[in-house]
């Protein structure tokens, strides 16, 4: 058999943003595998010269799926540039907006993207492996609830952020828009509905995933396992927090490697460049870059919902805490609940735990009387000239770092964006699955494509933080070429 | 009768236009029912080859979002133009270049040098740059070539209509979709070519509820510098608000949320250059006849190019910073 090259390109729902190359040797085994991101937009460079207070309104356009994350990381960095602490009501509004956004975003991913593999099963007919298949399995009523839950998240962002998409109200020193008593009543109602939705989601996950031993075995299988470092933001009590806190890193055995404040990120995170992808490869500076390998000696880390759970001491709300405990007890195979868990597919379960936390947080924070306060903005009176803002984007830790002149105009900007953190891990996960499946004598079938895709999809990738796969599965096309470049075989997989 | 064919495409964009379409909620089901969607990479699995296989003009309507900044974007724009009866620039990136168009203030070389060499977190002693072709032992890996200049859709192909906004607001999308369905169902005439859909002809100020008092300005302030009055025009409070130079249609959401307009709906009807229009509006509110004082006031405008042309640098008369 001749050597051949297999290209997965384009990955339709990430059009122009992700490309996989598999090379196969004479024996039909995988020789090598490359994952490429073919885009670069240069926000960091054209942000130079812009007033820093505009960064929360400029960097939202990095991503139309998670503009809230950029809005918040940017304004936190801008607060730091001016050395200003917003009034308590403003901080509460930001965090409430952010939890509302998470509740919608994690819902979309769980039901429309990741969920189908578990709810209808990884080997279900491809026509069923999408949101419609999920609705058929769990009922139309729940399908309608999913649409409503998405709308609830958007509504929270609109009330507090002024616009449901690309919010505008966060500015250095606080917020520009007050929340009225009437709006608060609506937020309280939305919070209550979100908690009910969260309970339903726990039940769905329980019924269709956890009660199926084959699915649990798949989650725990070695094919989908990488022993990497984990990174995530924790609050003062060590609990998961999306909006604020300290970054904690644990090693593959669960020992703490370091904790750092946002302004210390350069001591801990560095980025490597490889010649075949426009996207850089962040790694832990103190451990070092050893290439695309896992283990304690490799600085590769993961920044996912599961990583956040791995580095934390628990969740700050009761239902989420119960789910957190159940996840670790179930996946470590005993009742010890020890951490960390390295199973890539368990990221989906962690996302459900976080969804529950986000919904409970909206319900609790919406009831706080202080959110209707008039004191939402403290104009800055001096300038520090440098600031770092870190939040947890749904797809991983998001860092914005600005240096400004004495008037607050940006001189330098550095951004380490959600999915970028996972660039190395995603490449490794794809390769490991491909190695297991692309073997002598084995056909490259639709099933192979879906297994590769599952490795990919667990990270909810949003490459260049510019695009995002919406409903259903990521369709793929594999072209197998002979040495002369002629097409031997084309395997396509559609919805 | 066969359903009319619809295509939606994203070139260089943030994905927000696609989210705005989804934010029409149940309307999306009506769209899927009325049209035969033949291409929508964000949500469906048809490939470039499927589009190439269509007859010229077989697609009734294409909604194209995203700017043009690589050879791939350009090829697909040409392909969809050829296959579509009506090609619509959907959203600010396609129609005006939007915020990513501010990259025209710099160069591709400057972007690559910073990102891959100079940024404080990058460790790249060998000064490796991503290559459009890279040979590995097993074969060759390719990346698309990026353009130095961000271009708008109407700058590279013939465009029939514009739907502005960053993003187009879901309510306005619903209106446009209802109008399109009405035209197709009832065989009504199309609006004149070049019409701006899903927006107003007037300026954003016309839908802003804040009170105006033709007050003149002695100084400009930045949005974070003051505790603002929630009732009074933001420009009169000294903030550079793009309302006078921006097309209405968004519902003046930003201004009502306490921050000045940044111009995402592009210039109003009969205005060629949004930034020039804003410069003219600013001239009208300056309260001085003393040239030195006027100059000082103008100099105090924070980042005029990045504010006046926040969303329209590529479509403006300036287009880009010259080397």
Question: What keywords describe this structure?
Answer:
heterodimer, A: 495 residues, alpha+beta, 15 helices, 40% helix, globular, B: alpha/beta, Rossmann fold, two-stranded antiparallel sheet
Account of the protein in words:
The complex is a heterodimer of chains A (495) and B (323). Chain A is of the alpha+beta class and 495 residues long. Among the domains of chain A are: 4-40 and 422-493, no CATH class; 226-342, no CATH class. Helix content of chain A is 40%, strand content 17%. The radius of gyration of chain A is 22 Å and the shape is globular. Chain B has 323 residues and is an alpha/beta fold. Chain B folds into three domains: 5-99 and 148-185, Rossmann fold (3-Layer(aba) Sandwich), CATH 3.40.50.700; 107-146, no CATH class; 204-308, no CATH class. In chain B, a hairpin with a 2-residue loop joins strand 6 and strand 7 (139-142). The N and C termini of chain B lie far apart (55 Å). The chains are: A alpha+beta (495), B alpha/beta (323).
Rg calc of chain B = 22 Å
Helix content bin of chain A: 40-55%
The structural class of chain B is: alpha/beta
Helix-strand sequence of chain B: EHHEHEEHEHHEEEHEHHHHH
- What structural category do the secondary elements of chain A indicate? alpha+beta
Give the CA-CA distance, first to last residue of chain A: 32 Å
């Amino acid at each position: 058999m001749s050597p051949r090259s297999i290209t997965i390109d384009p990955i339709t729902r990430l059009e122009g943003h992700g490309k996989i190359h598999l090379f196969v040797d004479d024996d039909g085994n995988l020789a090598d595998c490359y994952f490429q991101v073919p885009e670069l937009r240069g926000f960091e460079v054209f942000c130079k010269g812009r007033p820093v207070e505009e960064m929360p309104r400029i960097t939202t356009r990095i991503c139309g799926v998670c503009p809230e994350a950029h809005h918040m990381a940017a304004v936190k960095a801008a607060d730091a540039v001016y050395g200003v602490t917003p009034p308590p009501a403003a901080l509460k509004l930001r965090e409430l907006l952010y939890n509302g956004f998470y509740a919608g975003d994690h819902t979309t991913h769980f039901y429309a993207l990741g969920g189908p593999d578990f709810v209808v099963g990884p080997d279900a007919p491809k026509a069923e492996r999408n949101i419609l298949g999920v609705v058929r399995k769990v009922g139309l009523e729940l399908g309608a609830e999913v649409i409503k839950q998405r709308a609830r998240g958007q509504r929270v962002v609109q009330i507090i952020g002024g616009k449901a998409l690309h919010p505008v109200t966060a500015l250095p020193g606080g917020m520009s828009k007050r929340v009225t008593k009437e709006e608060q009543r609506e937020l309280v109602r939305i919070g209550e509905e979100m908690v009910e939705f969260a309970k339903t989601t726990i039940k769905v996950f329980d019924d269709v995933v956890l009660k199926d031993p084959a699915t649990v075995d798949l989650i725990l299988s070695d094919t989908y396992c990488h022993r990497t470092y984990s990174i995530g933001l924790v609050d003062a009590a060590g609990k998961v927090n999306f909006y604020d806190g300290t970054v904690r890193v644990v090693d593959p055995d669960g020992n703490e490697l370091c904790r750092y404040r946002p302004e210390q990120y350069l001591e801990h995170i560095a980025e490597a460049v490889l010649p075949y992808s426009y996207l850089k490869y962040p790694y832990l500076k103190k451990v070092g870059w050893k290439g695309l390998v896992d283990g304690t000696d490799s600085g590769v880390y993961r920044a996912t919902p599961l990583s956040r759970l791995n580095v934390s001491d628990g969740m700050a709300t009761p239902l989420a805490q119960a789910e957190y405990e159940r996840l670790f007890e179930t996946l470590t195979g005993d009742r010890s609940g020890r951490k960390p868990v390295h199973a890539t597919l368990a990221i989906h379960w962690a996302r459900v735990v976080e969804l529950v936390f986000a919904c409970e947080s909206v319900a609790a924070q919406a009831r706080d009387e202080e959110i209707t306060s008039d004191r939402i903005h403290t104009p800055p009176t001096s300038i520090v000239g440098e600031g770092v803002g870190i939040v947890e984007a749904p797809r991983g830790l998001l860092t914005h770092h600005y240096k400004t002149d004495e008037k607050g105009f940006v001189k330098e900007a550095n951004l380490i964006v959600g999915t970028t953190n996972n660039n190395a891990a995603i490449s490794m996960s794809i390769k490991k699955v491909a190695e297991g499946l692309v073997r002598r004598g084995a056909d490259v079938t639709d099933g192979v494509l879906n297994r590769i895709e599952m490795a990919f999809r667990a990270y909810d990738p949003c490459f260049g933080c510019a695009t995002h796969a919406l409903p259903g599965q990521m369709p793929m096309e594999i072209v197998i070429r002979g040495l002369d470049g002629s097409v031997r075989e084309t395997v396509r997989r559609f919805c | 009768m066969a359903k009319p064919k619809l295509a939606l495409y994203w070139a260089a964009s943030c994905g927000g236009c696609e989210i705005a379409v989804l934010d029409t909620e149940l309307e999306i089901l009506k769209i899927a029912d009325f049209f035969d969607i033949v291409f929508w990479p964000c949500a469906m699995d048809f490939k470039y080859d499927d589009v190439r296989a269509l007859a010229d003009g077989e697609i009734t309507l294409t909604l194209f979002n995203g700017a043009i900044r690589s050879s791939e974007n350009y090829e697909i724009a040409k392909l969809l133009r050829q296959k579509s009866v009506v090609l619509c620039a959907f959203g600010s990136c396609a129609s005006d270049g939007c915020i990513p168009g501010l990259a025209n203030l710099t160069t591709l070389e400057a972007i690559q040098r910073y990102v891959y060499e100079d940024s404080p977190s990058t460790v790249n002693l060998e000064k490796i740059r991503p290559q459009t072709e890279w040979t590995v032992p097993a074969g060759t890996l390719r990346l698309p070539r990026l353009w130095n200049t961000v271009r708008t859709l109407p700058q590279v192909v013939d465009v029939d209509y514009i739907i502005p906004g960053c993003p187009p607001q879901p309510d306005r999308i619903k209106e446009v979709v209802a109008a399109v369905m009405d035209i197709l169902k009832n065989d009504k005439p199309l609006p004149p070519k070049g019409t701006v859909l899903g927006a107003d002809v007037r300026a954003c100020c016309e839908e802003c509820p804040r009170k105006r008092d033709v007050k003149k300005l002695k100084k400009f302030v930045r949005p974070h510098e003051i505790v603002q009055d929630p009732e009074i025009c933001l420009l009169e409070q000294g903030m550079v608000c793009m309302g006078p130079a921006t097309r209405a249609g968004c519902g003046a959401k930003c201004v009502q949320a306490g921050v000045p307009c940044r111009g995402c709906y592009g210039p109003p009807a009969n205005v060629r250059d949004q930034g020039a229009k804003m410069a003219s509006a600013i001239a009208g509110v300056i309260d001085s006849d003393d040239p030195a004082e006027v100059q000082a006031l103008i100099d105090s405008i924070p980042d005029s190019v990045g504010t006046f042309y926040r969303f329209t640098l590529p479509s403006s008369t300036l287009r880009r910073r010259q080397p």
